[in-house]
């Protein structure tokens, strides 16, 4: 266990009692609080970076193309096809 932030190191030095079991509990508590604080800061920074990126790179939502044509099978059920608008179906034609 080691404290990473200077603020928490200063708190530990100021609150240290000289009794090893109490000092160990204090250090453990400060490490736990510091970890939670760092995790929260990282989460907030990542969320802000994602929001900024999404604002700079908007996604274009496009609707799929739905086609229906008669089938040549024995059941005579229509063939339903859902494709992206940019899909080229020249390979499917016979």
Oligomer: single chain
What is the chain-wise order of helices and strands?
Answer: HHEE
Helix and strand content put the structural class at mainly alpha
Q: Helical percent range?
A: 40-55%
Shape: rod-shaped
Radius of gyration: 31 Å
Beta content: 5-15%
Low-confidence segments = none
The biggest sheet amounts to: 2 strands, antiparallel
Q: How are the strands of the biggest sheet laid out side by side?
A: 1-2
Q: Count of helical segments?
A: 2
Folded structure, characterized:
The protein has 94 residues and is mainly α. The chain has a domain at 6-56. Helix content is 50%, strand content 11%. It is built from 2 helices and 2 strands. The chain has a two-stranded antiparallel ribbon with strand order 1-2. The termini are far apart.
Describe the SSE topology.
Blueprint: H1 6-15, H2 20-56, E1 65-69, E2 79-83
Antiparallel strand pairs: 1-2
Give a nutshell description of this structure.
The protein is mostly helical and 94 residues long.
List its traits.
rod-shaped; 50% helix; 94 residues; mainly alpha
């Amino acid at each position: 266990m080691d404290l990473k932030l200077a603020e928490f190191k200063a708190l530990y030095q100021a609150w240290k009692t000289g009794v090893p079991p109490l000092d160990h509990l204090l250090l453990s508590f400060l490490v736990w609080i510091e970890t939670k604080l760092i995790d929260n800061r990282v989460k907030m920074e990542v969320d802000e970076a994602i929001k900024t990126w999404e604002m700079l790179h908007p996604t274009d939502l496009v609707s799929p193309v739905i086609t229906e044509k008669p089938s040549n099978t024995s059941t005579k059920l229509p063939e339903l096809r859902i494709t992206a608008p940019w899909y080229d179906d020249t390979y499917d034609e016979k």
